[in-house]
Structures are given as structure tokens and as C-alpha cells.
Amino acid sequence: MKAWGRLLAAAGAVLIVLATAAGASAASRAHRRHVQVFRPTAAAGLLLGVHGGYQVGVLFEEPDLAMLVVAKRGKSDFGVQETTYGTHFHGSLPGGRLSADFGAAGSIAVRFRPDGAARERRPFKGCEGKASRTESGHWVGKISLHGEDDYFAVSTGSAGGELDRTFRLRCHVKYALPQPRPESLRERVEPQVGSTLSSIVFGTVSSLVAVRREAGRVVELWAAHVTGAGPGAEVEAAAFEYQGRVPVGRLVQIPEAPAGTLVTTLPGEHPATATLKPGAPFSGEASYLATSPTTHNWTGTLAVRFPGLVAPLTGADFYSSLCVVSPLVKPHGCEYQPPNLEGGGESTTAEVRP
Amino acid sequence: MKLWRAVVVLLAVALLAPASSLAAETFSFGPGSVTFARLQATHGYRVNFSENDKGFFFVRVKGHGSTTDFTVKTGRAPGDHLVADFGGRGRFDLRFIPVGEPEPTSNEGCEGPKGSFRVGYLVGRARFRTERGFARIRLHRVWAARESWGHLTCEFSGGLPVFGHPKQKRATFAALASDAKTIFARPKRSLAFRATQFYRHAKPADRRVDFIAELRENAGRIAVHRKVIVAAPESSLLFPGAPRLPEEVAVKPPAPFTGSAEFLRTHESTFTWSGDLAVTFPGLDPIRLTGPRFSVSICALKGCVSRNAERPASGS
């Protein structure tokens, strides 16, 4: 579940920032020149269990973001299928009274009832302030949520969950540390392809991108060979649209697709071609052919099954780009090459480039 | 993606910052001593042997471009008696008889008490025979020396002589195979093949590429490290895909290597390391230097390319 992952990553980033601050202050007490204040935060999670084969949960983040996350994670291949519906909630997150309207996906109106004692974590060394708290308990009220064509449906009056709070911290640091800018609802919901950890750490030696923007929906496909990895590929597809005022982001990730999934020509070979044939939740296969630098044909039967949406991934309205590099010539890999997105006909690169 | 990058950067800052701030300008080592001798062996090889005060006995057999080191841990307390049992390879039982007075040694660049150097004889019995007898020694008396030193603290000179300095290199290639189950485990057997191509001004044309093969075995109480090195002309290391695919390499080193090998990129952007390249260490049968059990890396131009070995390795 990428949303949970993002939450964890954000929490990790905050921990690292705080740990670095504490470490820096502890390591050089004589040079703690700066006092940095970390503002209080609140976040909550509501777990609704498995419905229609998907884990369903709702995340609440300050200032007023609510994300309904519907996800399935493969146990053996670490694949992810996830759809996130976003909205702005009403109520008080620290007070534990919230309501959120997800449009066609339903609504939620709940209040938090803690069970037992809260878990507290003391501030890092070098920081002054109250201990952060995590309270476990139940969210009670009215919960009625369902996906397109009822691919999942939940109707209940109670669900388990947690409420996390951190309080204002005043830390002595050697250097002032940047604090991340809060994300907008769209930024939190819109999925991004091509940002797997291995591709960022090791880079990619070849990558294939296909994008279609039509009727308010953007569908993206990304497949790549990670530098130094064995046979096989990483494949991701994403879709983003607004259903009324509700942003909906969908993501499918296959981090370890088997050998033969992505086959490309080698650097400098003309014409540049590629074939892509990933397994479920994808179906069919697709072919890329660059007849010229401005004409890229992307054809085939490839499609993907997102939670709540089946989307074709080929066609004349897709713009595509293939990058194949030599790591000895371009050591940063395809990550740092701007995609040359072109269609099968006249170029409209500037319009579709993400 | 921005968030991940931020996490990676923050991790790098957190992990690297303390390490860089701990850089030292001196190094030190404790007191010790070693008794050593060297002599001519059969078939044009030379043999050096030594025992140190830490209870290790070393035998080095060198010649014809090869070096073979045999090490056994005796665990004996330091003294005038040198004893080591290499099983079927041989045995040393010698006593150091000093001649004259010990001479002080220079501690140039270091601080600490002066050490001493003393010549003498090793007398007694010693015999050693390598695999298939490519080199043999048998002795009752040999010139030897004993060197000892105290606790020394030395400054890095900043100009350590390094074989094949990186600035002289144009390309480096390495293929490594080991039977270690994880990267943290010490292998019982490891095999390495390396090639270094030097810039034109660094070496004469017929010695512009160095090929090295090494085999390390830690079987039982005896560790054996074998190494062969040979210089060759540029034509022995080719880049058939250049300039389009500079990461593709073809090697054909001279004896004691046989055959050739190629490192090629596939249409799935993986790499194959194949061919009939083999090396013959003195006293051993030829050993294959290609195949999926090798992890391979090449560095040239602006970067490096690597391929991991296929696991699980079934030994070298």
C-alpha cells in the first residue's frame, strides 16, 4: 500500500531529521548554534480489513487530508495494486471527531474511542517538549464505503485504528534542517511511476514510458531494467483522474517481473524497438517501434487491471519513449534522461510531457 | 519520488557525515618480530619462509610470473625454534643461531622505540614440496635474519607507492567467484580474474594490459593463495561493441591463460560472461574463469557496469 508506505517514509524522514539533529547536537555540544522548532503534528489511521480481496483503510493527515486506500500486496513478488480516493475531512484530528465525503465512493463520520494506555516516545536527546503519543482504539460512528461496481464494499459502525500525535519540539542543532513542505491533496493522491527504490538507488539502463491523457484521465506506464540487476524488469502503471471533486489515483507495481518481460534493442541500434509482456494484473503485450526520432509507434493488446478500473495501455493516442543507455557513457542512467515522448503521428510532445 | 530522494539524501548525510569527520592522519601498530630466510628451489622457483611472533608460519614460492603463499597457524609462542607442519607438503624444524650483534633499524616517518635486525643461520631440518613437485626445497642450514620492532606510530606519507595507480588506468575488468553463502561470510574458496588496461604513456605497447588470476583456499588449517600475473599487448583486451557499447569486452590473455572470453550485453540489459578462458596455476589443473557463478564488473570511461553472480554458488 503505497499510501501507507508514504506515511512510513514520511515518518522515517522525520525520525532521520530528528535523529540527525540530536546526533549533531550530541556530537558537538560546543557548536549547537541553532535552536529549531518542530511543529506539532497529528495523524490517524482506520483499518477496515479485507473486502473484495483488498485491504481497505482510511488515513487522516493534517491539515485536512483524508485518503481512502484500497490495496492488495503480493506476498511473494512484492507487487502492489492500489487505488486511493482523496478528500478534505471536517472535524478535529487531535480531538478525534472526523467526517469525510468521498463522493461516489461513500462517506465516513466517526469519533475516536481509545482502548487502554497510550504508547509514548520521549523526545530525542537535545530536544525539549512533550513525548509523542500513539493511542490505539476504535473509531465509531457511520462508515459506508464502496468502489466502482462494488469491487469492494464496507458498511459498519466501528473499526480499529490509531491516533498519533507529536507535540512542539524545541531542538538544539548544529545546522538548521529543512522541514518538508506539506503536500496538497492532489500531490498525496496522484501516483508517480518510475520512482521505485532500486531504480533511484542503482539507476536504470533501459526504460520504456507510455502516457495517455484523455477525458481528464492520465494513464502512465513505466518499465525498466535496473542497473546491475539480473534478467527481468520493474513494471509500473498508474492512472489519475477526478471523480467529481474526489481525486482518484491508481497504481500497479511489479518490482520483480520475470525474465523476458522487457526486451529492447541495444544502444545505438536502429530502429529502436522494445516488447513488453508483464504478467498479472497486466494482460496482453505491447510493441514499441521508433521509425524516426519523432514517430514512435506503441501498439498491441496490453492492458492493466487497477482496483476498480481496467485500462488499455496501448493505442494511437499513447505517447511513448524508449531510453537505452550505456552506463559507461551515461553513468546516471535513464533516470536523468528527459523522455522523448512522441506519438505515432504528428508530435505533440510539449502537450503530453508529464 | 521527491520524498524517496529526500530520504536517501538524509540517510546518506546521517551515515556519511560522522565517518568523514573521523579521518585520522596517523596509524600505529604493535610490537612484533619475524624470522625469515630465502633460498633457491627447484625448477627456477625461489622460496621465502618466515615465522612471526603471532604464531603464523608462511611459505612463499615465487617464479615464472606466479606466486603461491602457504600459511599455517602454529599458535606457538615466539622463540628461537621454528616449527611448522604442512602435512603432505612438508615440515620445518629449525633453530635460529644468531651471528654477531643485532643492528638497530631505522624508524623513518614513525615514532617509537627502535627495532633491531639480526642475521644468523637456521639449522635443523626442513623440507617442502608443492603440488606435483613444481618446486621443492630440502635444507639443513640456511642464512636467515630476525627483525623486531616496538610499538610505532607513523604518519601517512600521502604518496604510497601503489601498483598500477588509478590515474594510469584506462579500463579495469574483474570477474570474481566464491563459495561464500553471503557477502559477509568468509569464503573457503574464491577465484578472481582481473585485467587492467593502462594509458598509452604508462606502459610500452607490448605490456599495456595486465592480467591477474588469484585463487584463495582456506581448507583445514592451511591457507593457500595462488596468483599469476602476465603482461600483454592491447590486442589481448578488446572492446568489440565500442563506441556504441563500450561495456562489451573480449579478452584473450597469453599463457598461463588459455582460451578467450566475452562479456556481452543482452537485450534485457543483463550481461553474460562466457567463453573457454581458463588459467593454469603451477601444480594445478586448468581452472575455468567464465560462467554464471562469476560476478563481473568493468570500469571505463565515465562509469562502471557490474553483473552479480547467480546464487546459490556451488563452490569455485
Structure description:
Chain A is mainly beta and 354 residues long. Helix content of chain A is 12%, strand content 51%. Chain A is built from four helices and 25 strands. Chain A has a 15-stranded antiparallel β-sheet that branches. A four-stranded antiparallel β-sheet of chain A has the order 18-19-21-22, with no helix packed on it. In chain A, strands 1-13-10 form a three-stranded antiparallel β-sheet. The longest helix of chain A is centred in the N-terminal third of the chain and has 26 residues, at 2-27. The two termini of chain A are 24 Å apart. In chain A, 42% of the residues are buried. The model of chain A is unreliable at 1-30 and 346-354 (pLDDT under 50). Chain B is globular and about 70 Å long. Chain B has a 15-stranded antiparallel β-sheet that branches. Chain B is built from one helix and 25 strands. The relative contact order of chain B is 0.13. The model of chain B is unreliable at 1-24 (pLDDT under 50). With 316 residues, chain B is mainly β. The longest helix of chain B is centred in the N-terminal third of the chain and has 20 residues, at 2-21. Chains A and B meet through helix 1, helix 3 and strand 18 of A and helix 1, strand 24 and strand 25 of B.
